[in-house]
Amino acid sequence: MKALVYTDVEEMTFQNEPDPVLEEGENLIRVVSVGICGSDMHGFLGHDERRPAPLILGHEAAGDVIEGPMKGKRVTVNPLVTCDKCEACVTGREHLCAERSLISMKPRQGAFSELLKMPSSNLVEVPDHVDFDHAALTEPLAVCWHAVKLGEAALFFAPADAKCLIIGGGAIGLGTALALRARGYTNISISEPNEKRHDMLRSAGDFNVYSPLQGHPDGVMFDIVFDAVGFAGTRADASALVKPGGVIVHIGLGDSEPGLDVRRITLQEIQFIGTYCYTKVDFAETAQGIYDGIFGDLTWHQTRPLAEGHQAFVDILAGAVAEPKVILKP
Hints:
By secondary structure, the protein is of the alpha/beta class. The chain has helices spanning 38-44, 87-90, 132-135, 138-154, 171-182, 198-205, 232-241, 262-267, 280-292, 309-317; strands spanning 2-8, 11-16, 26-35, 55-56, 60-67, 74-77, 80-81, 101-102, 115-119, 123-125, 163-167, 187-191, 208-210, 222-227, 242-250, 271-274, 301-305, 325-329.
């Protein structure tokens, strides 16, 4: 099979790789659409020790099952593989499994390839009327859906009354805004420094969009803040912009440097929630939400051939891509 392989820091090579060998209960998927995630970019830059070269990256995938128990089905892929036996798994918190693994992390190869193998329990069927490009957005949107549910459980306000801020207008930031809107929130702002994205972000859901480089709105504070970037500077912004008694939901994994104002968080009883991935229920709910259209028309991506994947990474890194998501087509 052909695959886009991370071969060195800032190097991707489109090359031949061995076809996956199926084990019992696994399916062979012909990948039709696979998205580039921020975590793939971290690996590309050599910033993720869990993704050493050489490795096939990519975990936001959808396609056709061509061999295995689900042969003939159209599917979207839950890339998080868990033991299904530990306390976390049996209590419905599979994403916290101590033995969890994700395709695109050693030792599991990812989905920037023509073929991918996955257990049946990690596949969700896709109806015929749903485009594979949209189905491939299930994984990033499930991250957002899970984060919004966690934040909502900690919030003292009804959705219609809450002032919400999302820091970052990439795929996770926009996905979080769409998940909030789908759950009844109406006052939603997005802080995004790349002004090339502003018109698209506004049109995706009539959101309030501004550049933090021009300053945050004077005197405005928020009941709940989602940091979809995860750098020291964005954590500092979240600390400063959340109301007393409010909630910070930290999704991004940009770095592990300081940034939180822990004293203010303590003195003003601000809740800080770290969130990672999603449960199987979250993933299934998100997939159904896509099929039902609750996240809008999902036209905020561009597509490129997998063979041109290296250039896509270069363009994203250079800030030359206005859309929050690039989907590669094997």
